[in-house]
Amino acid sequence: MELWVPDLARAEATFGWILTELGWAEHQRWNAGVSWKLGGTYVVVEQSPAVTGPHDRMRAGLNHLALHAGTREDVDRLTRESEANGWKLMFADRHPHAGGPDHYAAFLENSDGFEIELVAA
């Protein structure tokens, strides 16, 4: 998955923190981007000069990235630590069951409007 971002440093701070916490390792780095890898999957954030506007998860394209985050306790810890690392909790009135009564997850958004869902096993 490759995400084009308006500010690489901001994206690296938020996505880098959460991906590293989930066990991903930095894979590649270049002037305009960085990637993290876990097993056979990798995520890229790149500040491309071809970006034409801000990210809007409500428009066609990526709504959010959902990732397995371990146990419910892991999700709770990451949720507590997320604000200090550039994320804010979405759907706080329904957390941690915003995805339904049998779904335990945290839905987080960074300042560029990218949403991530941390799902408990």
Automatic annotation (TrEMBL):
This is VOC family protein. Gene3D superfamilies: 2,3-Dihydroxybiphenyl 1,2-Dioxygenase, domain 1. The lineage of its organism: Bacteria, Bacillati, Actinomycetota, Actinomycetes, Pseudonocardiales. It comes from Lentzea kristufekii. Pfam families: Glyoxalase_4 (PF13669). Residues 1-121 form the VOC domain. It comes from the Bacteria. SUPFAM superfamilies: Glyoxalase/Bleomycin resistance protein/Dihydroxybiphenyl dioxygenase (SSF54593). InterPro entries: Fosfomycin_Res_Enzymes (IPR051332), Glyas_Bleomycin-R_OHBP_Dase (IPR029068), VOC_core (IPR037523).
